[in-house]
Amino acid sequence: MRVDEEVVVIVRGLEVVVERAGGLFLGRRDTIEAFADPPVFLGRFEGRGWYAARARPSVELPAELAFASVRSLFSELPEPTLHILGRALAGVEFAETHRYCGRCGTATQQDAAASDGRELSVGEQTRRCPSCGLSVHPRIAPAVIVLVERDDRVLLARSARFPPGRFSAVAGFVEIGESLEQAAAREVGEEVGVQIRDLKYFDSQPWPFGRSLMIGFSATYAGGALTPDGHEIVEADWFSREQLPDLPPKVSIARRLIDAFVQRSAPLS
Question: Which of 102, 118, 136 delimits the end of a domain?
């Protein structure tokens, strides 16, 4: 692979470097040493090898560049690129937190990248100890997200972390020893106080915030009074498709769940 076929995303926490004139900044491996650590391989996309590198502490970017949160780019970048940015955030964090072997203390190395030249081929993120041979894989936290339906309305909730006025489906992480179905019922019960039935798988989505895999479900209301827990959820209500509140961005599985409900419920013309 030629150098000009390789691009690097520069990461700082949950931010990436962008061009002030607009667009994601894609550096070259031979030109980023001044403000970034050695890059890790992410995979191949659009005929290029994609890498990610952590910005050096207290780095001063050139005037034409700036940091931007990945969340702020949801409406600006195509979904495949956003998925690559999710890999970039997770890949840099994994390399940083697993620099040394937990068994013998030797500096770890990224395994040889697994790329067969096909588009969207994912790079192997395993880190291996060259001394004792221990291999460590990135931790991916499974999470469920559930859209509950009742009488042609859907249950939407507002997290304390959301912007004012934004609502979404109920979501939460799977606990040790739980099935996905058990986690879905527990999260809905704990966060908004209702019971569900007829749980149906919808889709899944890797999600960079929390390094999680979101597994989406639809469900039917089975009982209970709507009671937000006041901690994770500060407000919840039933909404018809004609009166939906501010919703998550279209790239999210939450929005896809809601859009699918709207399309399925829409009257035939």
Answer: 136
Give the pLDDT confidence of 193-212 residue by residue, as tens digits: 999 999 999 999 988 776 78
Categorise residue 198: left if φ over 0, alpha if ψ from -120 to 50, beta otherwise. Answer: left
pTM of the model: 0.82
Domain span at residue 102 reads: 3-136
CATH code, domain carrying 214? 3.90.79.10
- Do 190 and 233 meet the contact criterion of CB atoms below 8 Å apart? no
- pLDDT tens for 61-100 read 989 999 999 988 888 888 888 888 988 999 999 999 999 9
Q: Using the structure block, give the residue that is written with the tokens 């949950």.
A: 14
Neighbouring-strand partners of residue 235 = 158
Q: Which residues pair with 40 in a beta bridge?
A: 52
Query: Can you name the residues that pair with 19 across neighbouring β-strands?
Result: 65
- Number of helices and strands in the chain (H, E): 3, 14
Domain co-membership, 189 together with 117: no
How far apart CA 14 and CA 39 sit, in angstroms, is 16
